[in-house]
């Protein structure tokens, strides 16, 4: 038990280190881009990033939800086979994601962002296939190597953006290269880590293995695509139903918020494998889930309370007086994000039980709940309408997750499945 606690503490410590670097670099990069492009330009830039993120989800057909639970107990050769099969699958779907992104952009008529979309789209080809190595390290509860590489990549991106800011570059596409270079550094670093752990070719990829991972990941695939669509639904609808100024205010508030909510992913990534995924029976699973849920709830509430007082001041300092209109938005978003932390913990149970179809159903319902809220309130209240849709979605997500968990637990007690 002591060794498990030590591993959990060490894993959390390294992930927190990566989180802090991401937090600081993300805020600094966002501030520099915002000060350079202004409220409207920054809003359009964040819209482009959001659009790329939505299409990148197409490459998540075999993500950590599939890899981490499997890789934990496999011998070395079988681990290598799993990683190779997952990598090939992610490469194929990453190429598909980029093609669909470029097709969407060509038909959307957004010519002002065409070059930026192409540059940011290329990051998918580097980020997503290499993420399989991160999933493997997560399953091993050894996030230290990936953290070092990620921190180096983040620092390089900050330096590049600062250079562009100092020479007063105003073109949207120029800043996109900083994101592309960051993704290349991360991919190369993760490839090096993989080769150090597997210096000789042991396990080999197989078509049957790729096909099996595709089948296993398919239920989660729908859930992930729908989840990412929901995450950027606010920016897309605000871009087309609101104004560029409203988009800029909302994007800046969301940028600061995302720097804090990333902590939920850090906590879940570090704690879930040890508290829930490794549980051998229903009692251990229930105890681990309760601890995980309470930890996520306390973490979310603490971040919201502290952030309510500190982050608005930080937003003004970093982004400048032109973005002062984003402060009320940020305060509302902070308390709404508590539901994000809760849902992240609840979703672990569905992932452990491999109920990917239920996750897909959940996010479909969330979209159906938030979409009419966005459509009705954004034209009336602009950025505040987007906040309403965001919070309504995560409240719905928590309720649905609770209902699914109670149903599965009842099913297990009744039928022993």
Describe the protein in words:
The structure is a single chain. The two termini are 28 Å apart. The chain is globular. It is built from 13 helices and no strands. Helix 11 runs parallel beside helix 13. Residues 413-417 have low confidence and may be disordered. The chain is mostly helical.
Helix content: over 70%
Q: Please count the helical segments.
A: 13
Question: What kind of sheet is the major sheet?
Answer: none
Binned strand content: under 5%
Overall structural class, as computed from helix and strand content, comes to mainly alpha
Give a short summary of the structure.
With 417 residues, the chain is mainly alpha-helical. The chain is 87% helix and 0% strand.
Notable traits:
417 residues; mainly alpha; 0% strand; disordered C terminus
